[in-house]
Amino acid sequence: TLELGATTFAHICAACHQASGQGIPGQFPPLAKSDYLAKSSKETIIGHVLHGLQGPVAVNGTTYNGVMPPMSFLSDAEISAALTYARASFGNQLSAVAPAEVAKVRGQTASAP
């Protein structure tokens, strides 16, 4: 699954977060050694990938106020693999994200009014 994660990250996520996970200063936050990634729940991070993120977010002491587009076109397996890859790479040592966790978050918003 790390192979799928690395491939998905390279094709989708690296455009903004860079192949190194360092992001682009002032524009796109780093995923490398990210305090935001470490302290946010898996559900929150999954939601960012599925639904996008807009508005200010503080990562490693720097505030970013960009727009992350929704990536809901990705499969649950692709999202879980890419998040697992990011959470286990770039100096991060965070737990894996299962496809079922992505499916649960995707389902919660599908049934919301």
Could you explain how this protein is built, in words?
With 113 residues, the protein is mainly alpha-helical. Helix content is 50%, strand content 9%. The protein has helices spanning 2-17, 35-39, 42-51, 76-88, 99-110, and strands at residues 53-54, 57-59, 62-64, 67-68. The strands form two sheets. The chain has a two-stranded antiparallel sheet. Strands 2-3 form a two-stranded antiparallel ribbon. It is globular and about 35 Å long. The chain starts with a helix and ends with a helix.
Mind describing the biggest β-sheet?
2 strands, antiparallel
Instruction: Catalogue the unreliable spans.
Output: none
Number of strands: 4
In DSSP terms (H or I, runs of 4 or more residues), the helix count works out at: 5
Strand content: 5-15%
- Amino-to-carboxy terminus distance: 34 Å
Percentage of residues assigned to helices: 40-55%
Overall 3D shape: globular
N-to-C series of helices and strands: HHHEEEEHH
Specify the structural class.
mainly alpha
- On the 0 to 100 scale, the average pLDDT is 94
Provide a brief overview of the structure:
50% of the residues lie in helices and 9% in strands. It is built from five helices and four strands; from the N terminus they run αααββββαα. The strands form two sheets. It has a two-stranded antiparallel ribbon with strand order 1-4. A two-stranded antiparallel sheet has the order 2-3.
